[in-house]
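Justification of computing resources. Each target in the renewal requires a structure prediction run like the one illustrated here; the chain below, 170 residues long, is used simply to show the kind of job we budget for.
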Amino acid sequence: MRSDRCAGRSPLVRCVSMALTIVLVVGAAFAAFVGFAVTTKSPGALNLLRRINKVTFNRFVSRTAGQEGATYSMIRHVGRRSGNRYETPIEVIRDGDEFAIASVYGDLTDWRRNVLAAGGATIVHEGVEHVVAEPRLVPVLEAVPPLTDEQAARVQRMGMSEVLRLTASG
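Resulting structure tokens:
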């Protein structure tokens, strides 16, 4: 006879308890992986994280990105090799006609490479489309618009040294 804490519990309760334990362990392992990838800047780990985000996080966030009141904006860009049009959710800091975008993945980010190659893109921010041009990489501390203290701390904690700066063209 079992004397552990599951004794006397229904099979459904045991099954749910086991499922929750698995979810917590997998979640903790994924959080540790994200921390490792971001802090060490391991190209292999960052590339894997980027792929996971493309098929999970980006699809979820894309539902509201760019809408009024949304946390994330949307950048529309053209593939530098394929010529295909893409939409990617991003976090934008805006000050008038200036936009700054930080990228956890740095040079590995497809949208950033596409925008730099094309010389511009379209940002949908707060429900309004902005055609942006003059993409340039600038040091985090020289970002205009300036990052808030919280944003600057997060960017530096993640090891990012530069942001993509763009200017609305009209």
